[in-house]
Amino acid sequence: MRTAVVIGTGLIGTSAALALTARGVVVHLRDADADAARTAAALGAGTAEPPEGRVDLAVVAVPPAYVAATVAEAQRAGVARGYLDVASVKGGPRRDLEALGGDLSRYLGTHPMAGRERSGPLAATEELFEGRPWVLTPTPETDTEVLNLALELVALCRAVPVVMDADAHDRAVALVSHTPQLVSSMVAARLEHAEETAVRLCGQGIRDVTRIAASRPAMWLDILAANPGPVADVLAAVAADLTGTVEALRALQSADEDKRRTGARGIEDVLLRGNAGRDRIPGKHGAAPAAYETVAVLIGDRPGELARLFADAGAAGVNIEDLRIEHATGQQAGLVQLMVEPRSVAGLTAALRERGWSIRG
């Protein structure tokens, strides 16, 4: 691949353009908002000037409802040898393109499983896709050249290709992406009119659950409108669990000992099923989740403190597998939770204490 057109210069489109440009591909940027394309170009994602002839690949990075029309228009204009989109819903856009008379052999639906709470070209980064799954949904009609171009794009963005059926993909993202967004928003909505004293008690648990609730509503309305059935199916199952949990909690309030025992079993059941589901989420490098242990370190809110902590851990010969930062409300300090292999806990704890760090827990 030597040339590409990226149509849509939001977070995903600009990030892909940055990755391609960094690896020597000449990228032309198009957007209905000319200022967005110029902003992406100023960031080094390519040029806002149109190509002189046909390019190798057109990457369509627009909301799901606009994918089919955008691809069909680009095909009629002969923009590229191959066309793919990066929308988060796959079945509907393909059917819409077929209805518009588009050339399905030159088109491939794809979806990089990456994103941020922020949107727009200024949120873009060329590392956005590194190590992340990038779903490809080829069919028997897909031309081999187009599939190869898509695989090259994934490789240049340093992502991991995953081949799926389009409708199976939509059911999967309804479970692992779209429903979590709604549930996160619903929990965060409880805080809108909560008493100030309650809000001041917010800790890492509520921050974790509501992190993605900061996402832009307009973007998610586009996504959910393109995949309503599968999302509704998952939410219906969640609603059934919620109903059962409410009933179990009410039973715990009963004066009847049998009802309290039944309620406790109901709560335990949902918690255990949650444990089992959480254990299935792939861990580092896509492998089965590892049983890491945590070393909690008190850290001041000063420049360079995290870098110093990481350097001290490295000097101790310990690899940090993951981390979380819990900020202390109203204080210039926080708690950094370093996740490490169990065999490393004692050595890391001793080394950090020797270097003056305050270990908690």
Automatic annotation (TrEMBL):
Presence of keyword Amino-acid biosynthesis: yes
Record InterPro entries: 6-PGluconate_DH-like_C_sf (IPR008927), ACT-like_dom_sf (IPR045865), NAD(P)-bd_dom_sf (IPR036291), PDH_C (IPR046825), PDH_N (IPR046826), Preph/Arog_dehydrog (IPR050812), Prephen_DH (IPR003099)
Gene Ontology terms: biological process: tyrosine biosynthetic process
Domain of life: Bacteria
Entry keywords, A to Z: Amino-acid biosynthesis, Aromatic amino acid biosynthesis, Oxidoreductase
Gene Ontology molecular function terms on file: NAD+ binding; prephenate dehydrogenase (NAD+) activity; prephenate dehydrogenase (NADP+) activity
A Pfam short name: PDH_N
Pathway involvement of the protein, from the record: Amino-acid biosynthesis
Domain Prephenate/arogenate dehydrogenase: 1-279
Family designation: Belongs to the prephenate/arogenate dehydrogenase family.
Entries under PANTHER family matching the protein: PREPHENATE DEHYDROGENASE, PREPHENATE DEHYDROGENASE [NADP(+)]
Name of the protein in its database record: Prephenate dehydrogenase
Species annotation: Streptantibioticus cattleyicolor (strain ATCC 35852 / DSM 46488 / JCM 4925 / NBRC 14057 / NRRL 8057)
